Amino acid sequence: MPATFRTAALAVHAQVALKNRFANKVEDPSNPYSNHSESESDSEDEEIKEIPVTAAEAAIKKEKKSKLRRYRGMLLALLSSLIFSLTALLVKKLEGYHPISIALWRFQGALLPAVPLIIHKLYFSKLGNKVFDRVWPWSNLKNLGMFGLVLLRSVLSCNSLLLHFYSLQYMSIGDALTIASSTPIFVALLAKVFLKEKCGLVTIIASLFTLVGVAVITRPPMLTGEESFDMKTLIGSALALGCMLLASISFTVLRYIRKVHYSITTLMFGLWGTVENIVLAFALHVFKSPSGLKEWGLIGTLALLTFIGQCAIILAMKAEQAGPVAVVRTFDVIFGVIWQIIILHSFPDKIRYEMNWS
Predict the structure, then answer these.
(1) For residue 303, which of 328, 273, 282, 330 has the smallest C-alpha distance?
(2) Tens digits of per-residue pLDDT, 283-323?
(3) CA–centroid distance for 76 within its chain
(4) Which parts of the sequence are annotated with region: Disordered (predicted)?
């Protein structure tokens, strides 16, 4: 509302200024102080019309744009949550593939589109060589350090993704994404320490509740009545927890390097992921090529969603602080449970129990 009143005041001020200046132009010929020529008056009148009116219009346009910009980061983060929940669903559908093989194909969605995007920015965009300004030349130590952080973020994100894929082999989408949803807590704490962003008492209390929630997902014997932990659930929880910790550091680094062009960040993410997973896939003999139109369709969709999701989260970090973006990212839990119920027909424990009992 204050911004609206400010815009209206600007417009009124412009109109009043026009009236006052126009009144001053109607001069008495007998007035000895009236010595403006016609050309001067005309040019002055044009100047008056242009400057205040333009300022008022610019303020109005700025007000309209600010409403979208204010929530741009949150909307992009929400989009990335939707996309990454869909990628988790596709991973579940690709049951015959090893997590490393899935990750290898997924990283092509970040690498391949990033190359023509950078070429377009270099030769057909106004940015030109400015795309590399923050990371090149390496003779500038600041650029070298920024490139190192871009590479670090790629390594963290790549291995976080691998742990996420492995966790889906041992637990449901809903449980894996629920553990991953504790990422905002650790992002907020890291952003407070390294980026000097705000972190209140609510965040600290929420972190304690989050840790309790993660402990419940591991299904300890005191809650299930079993004699010992379910090893499959315990392994899946440990993998999901590792994924969450790496993702938290990755989010913090990504926020710090937000001034690097998103095409460079996406390219490095795809390049590192491709190299690492090729080495692992052939070393462990787990590489698998898609066979049949259906599998190629699933792999292609996974790659495309990866590219869109990466661009969305990178741009979200440019527009908003790390803490709020990480909080919005927890919506992938809701999306994940929806896909789990509707498409995989897998219900959370309590729902499944009640349905079987009825």
Answers:
(1) 273
(2) 999 999 998 899 999 999 999 999 999 899 888 888 888 77
(3) 6
(4) 25-48
Secondary structure class of 136 (helix, strand, coil): coil
Q: Give the three-state DSSP class for 15.
A: helix
pLDDT digits 0-9 by tens, 73-89 = 889 989 998 998 898 88
Three-state DSSP at 117 gives helix
Q: With contact defined as beta carbons under 8 Å apart, do 177 and 164 qualify? A: no
DSSP 206-262: HHHHHHHHHHHHT--HHHH--SS--HHHHHHHHHHHHHHHHHHHHHHHHHHTTTS-H
What are the backbone dihedrals phi and psi of residue 200, each rounded to the nearest 5 degrees, phi first?
Answer: -95, -175
Scan for tokens 């369709």, then name that residue: 297
283 sits in which H/E element: helix 262-283
Residue 216's contacts (CB-CB under 8 Å, 6 or more residues apart) are: 223
With beta carbons less than 8 A apart as the criterion, state whether 189 and 251 touch: no
**Chain position carrying tokens 């010929």:** 29
Residue 315 CA, distance from chain mean position: 6
Whole-model pTM? 0.70
